[in-house]
Give the backbone structure.
Amino acid sequence: MNKVIIITGASSGFGKMTAERLAAHGHTVYGICRREMRHDKIRYMQGDVRDAEGIALKIKEIYDKEGKIDVLINNAGMGIGGSLEMATQEEIETQMNVNFMGCVNMCQKVLPYMRKQRYGKIINLSSIGGIMGLPYQGFYSASKFAIEGFSEALSAEVKGFGITVSMVEPGDFATNFTASRKNSEATMNDPDYGPIFKRSLGLIEKEENGGLKPEVLARKIEKIVDAKHPRLRYVVANLEQWFSVVLKRLIPGNWFVNILVDYYKTKP
C-alpha cells in the first residue's frame, strides 16, 4: 500500500539511499534537506530541521496536499569530533540542535496530524554511539543518547493513539558522514589531547570507511516501514559491533570503559 513518507537529511548518505528505495517501491516520499535537490520520484523540500516554524509550514503543506502522513523518518544528523573539555558553546549547540532538537521539532510538528488520523509510524535514527559514550565523539553520543530517551518516552505516550516509535541504531557505515565530520581545532592543537585525538580519529575513520554499505540500512528501514508491529530498537551493525552492544549490557561499567580506552587508545 502506498504510504506518504517524510524523511529528513535526504540529500545524501542514509537519507538519500532510503528515500530513493522507498520511492522506487511506490511510496510518496518527501525529502527535507537544507540543499536544493531535484529527483524524478522524490519530492524534495528545502528546509532546516532546527527551524521549528519553517518545518511546521512544510508539514502542513504535505498534509494538506496528501490528506495523511503515514511515516516520519528522522535521519538528519551531523558529527563534531573533539574532546568534551574543549568543545565550544557553538559546537555543542550545533551538535545537539541538529541531531536532537531537529528530531524533536519534526516529531512535535507531525504528531498532531498522526493523532488526528489515529495511526502513524515514527522512525528515529540513533546510533551505537547512543548506546555507549564514544571518546572524542562525546557530544555526538550525547545527542543520540537524548534521542534514545526521548523516543522511549514518546513511544509510551503515543502508542494509545495508534502511533509506533522505532529507533535504528547503526554501527559504522561507509558514507560521506566521515568526510563531513567537523573536528575541534582546539583539541587538535592541544599538547595533551591533540596526539591522542589524532590517533583515535584515525581508528574511527578506518572503521567508518570500511563499514557496511548504506544500502543495508536502507533495506532495514524499508522493512520497518512495512512492518505491522515494529520493534522499539533495531541495531544494524557488523558482528563485532553488535557483540559490543551485547557486551555493554552484560559487564560492569568500569570494565566497559577500560575496553573503550584500549580500543580507541585514549591513554597518552
User: Anything to note?
Assistant: The chain has a mean pLDDT of 93. The radius of gyration is 19 Å. The CA atoms of residues 57 and 109 lie 9 Å apart. The beta strands are 4-8, 28-33, 42-46, 71-74, 80-81, 120-125, 163-170, 182-183, 233-236.
